[in-house]
Amino acid sequence: MTDADAPAAAAPAEPVPGAPSVFLVGPMGSGKSAVGKTLARLRGQRFIDSDVEIERRTGVDISYIFEREGEAGFREREREVIGDLTQLPGIVLATGGGAILLPENREHLAGRGVVVYLEASIAQQVERTQHGRHRPLLLNADPATRLAELMAAREPLYRSIAHVVVQTDRRKVQSVAEHIIEGHPTGVLAIKQNGGFGLVGRNGKVALLNQVFNRLRTVVQSRLELAGRRSGLGGPVGLGPVPECGWSAAI
Fold it and tell me: Crossing angle of helices 173-182/32-43, nearest 10°?
């Protein structure tokens, strides 16, 4: 997948009030920045790259920060930026590959928006990073070996906060962005929301799953029966069939 795969295509969509933020996580070379820019255009949202924001705030590039402050110093700056950016409404945020290392970052990402994990094989990561700059963790190391080591430590963390996982190998940027929006064959994107599950469509709305309504129906019916017994009315209390769910309020 290359940046050139993202066509000029359609004009930006109109922003949707209340549409959730989307936070892209994944390893180097998974296409977070390229996909994020296209996704933001399709959703009518602002795109922000956390690494670019760190460079903007410090006035120096990532490699220089690593050189002067080490990885620990960079992660502290990254923590501050992730904490700030995840509070912004309705954005598409591309994070650095190691942004998920700190528990505080994982909490903010998972709790303040829809986390999309862009999955990429080691082979794609190597291909996408071999001509790149500002990859301090790959300096003086065999890229394939180092990337495999990073993935072994980070992949469980990506998955632990991901609401959605999208494979990016050999896929065009536009295709990945549209997949994130369209999601499953139903035309919507399944995510975890407020401890339950919902569906997010192109317009940023949430459609509650029929299973949620069925569960609610069971709980309400049991409470009605209990209330009936306590009041002395007795007899079964029934609820009518639950209609197919439609769109609900925005997140």
Answer: 50
pTM for the structure as a whole:
0.70
Which residues are CB-neighbours of 187 under 8 A, at least 6 positions away?
201
- List, for residues 79-121, the tens digit of each pLDDT value: 999 999 999 999 999 999 999 999 999 999 999 999 999 999 9
68's CB contacts (< 8 A; 6+ apart) are none
| Tally of CB atoms within 10 A around 242 | 12
What is the C-alpha to C-alpha distance for residues 109 and 80, in angstroms, rounded to an integer?
13
- Buried-state track 125-163, b at ≥16 Cβ within 10 A, e below 16: bbbbbeeeeebbbbeeeebeebbeebbeebeebbeebbb
Torsion of Cα atoms, 92 then 95 then 101 then 104, to 10°: -40
Closest by alpha carbon to 130, among 23, 26, 28? Answer: 28
Q: What is the DSSP letter of 90?
A: S
Under 8 Å between Cβ of 153 and 147? no
Give the pair of three-digit tokens for residue 53.
């924001």
Cβ atoms of 129 and 26 within 8 Å: the answer is: no
Tell me the angle at which helices 143-161 and 103-112 cross, rounded to the nearest 10 degrees: 50
